[in-house]
Design goal:
The chain is of the alpha+beta class. It folds into 2 domains: 1-33; 35-96, Roll (Endonuclease I-creI), CATH 3.10.28. Helices cover 53% and strands 33% of the residues. The relative contact order is 0.19.
């Protein structure tokens, strides 16, 4: 009789563990679904000002959409018209 109780305890523990793992996987899937990449763009005469404008644009998009920005900001810049104007894009992950 005592051996049977130990076996049922082991089976019960295995069921609880599998439910906990399944619950964690569902939470991870929901978290992944509620995130998106947002991008802000800035254009100016100098690259430093274009970067600042892109960052401010990213801030505005994030506040309008709502949510929490996560991860690092990815910044890409390139020269525009005749090498006079710089355009930068800042992108970051936004989760609700």
């Amino acid at each position: 009789m005592r051996l049977l109780n130990v076996k049922s305890l082991c089976v019960g523990a295995a069921v609880v563990m599998s439910l906990a793992v399944a619950g964690t996987a569902d939470a991870a899937r929901k978290k992944a679904r509620s995130c998106a990449m947002v991008t802000g763009e800035g254009t100016a005469i100098t690259e430093a000002i274009a970067r600042a404008n892109a960052t401010m644009s990213l801030d505005q998009v994030s506040s309008r959409v709502g949510g929490k920005r996560t991860g690092k900001v990815k910044m890409t810049c390139k020269k525009g018209i005749a090498g006079i104007v710089d355009t930068c894009q800042a992108s970051q992950r936004l989760c609700k």
